[in-house]
Structure formats: C-alpha cells, structure tokens
Amino acid sequence: MVLVHIVLFKFRAEVGNKVKQEFLSQIKTLKSLSCVKSQRLVVGGPSITTPIEKSKGFQYALVSYHEDRTALAEYQASSEHERVTSTYFIPYKEDLVRFDFETDQADETLLGF
Questions:
Q1: CA 66, CA 39: separation in Å to the nearest integer?
Q2: Which residue ranges does the record assign to the Stress-response A/B barrel domain (predicted)?
C-alpha cells in the first residue's frame, strides 16, 4: 500500500512572487528525504483551474508518496520539513489544506510503483 499526501497552500494577498518562488524552490528539496517513496514529490502552481474560484484561493499544491503511515509521520517530523515550512510558508500563510490517503495495493501500478 502507498500513502498519498496532498497539501494545498494559500498565501496572504500581500505576499510577493519572490517569497512564493523561494517557497517552491525549498519545498521541492524535501523529495530527497528517505521517507519519500522513490523521491516522488511534486509541487505545482499557481492554480490554472477555470474558473479560478473553484480553487478557493489556493495557489500551490504538493503531492508526495510514502510507504506507509510511519514514513509520512517521519516526513512530517523531519527537521528539514520543519525548516522549510516554518521559514518559507508559515510566516506568509493564509490557509492550508492537507489530505492523506492510503491506496489499494491493486492501484499501486497506476502510480508507477
């Protein structure tokens, strides 16, 4: 079973592009953590959803894959995750949504595992 971790990020309106670009650059470094399955972590944005209102103001998204709940907990507790989020997102945050789920073993091949 593979655990999928999805996070949606919303920055406050006054936060500039320089801050957002640094956040994107830094959050991508988390793929090197051993608890990220096969270094599969992708970050994207800004949202291109049409109409944009359907994005509910969320601007960026992260999707990462983990072996199990233990690996996800390790990812969340890592000093690198803490450094990136506390430095590059939390001070500029308006909102965040996190959604984690376990896949059926039969669906793992759809994810490339």
A1: 9
A2: 3-101
Q: Which domains does the chain have, with CATH numbers?
A: 2-99 (3.30.70.100)
Rounded CA gap, 52 and 42, in Å? 21
Q: Is 63 in a helix, a strand, or coil?
A: strand
> What distance in Å separates the CA atoms of residue 6 and residue 81, rounded to the nearest whole number?
15
pTM of this structure: 0.93
- Read off the pLDDT of residues 31-83 as tens digits, 9 standing for 90 and up: 999 999 999 999 999 999 999 999 999 999 999 999 999 999 999 999 999 99
Compute the distance between CA of residue 25 and CA of residue 19 in angstroms, rounded to an integer.
Answer: 10
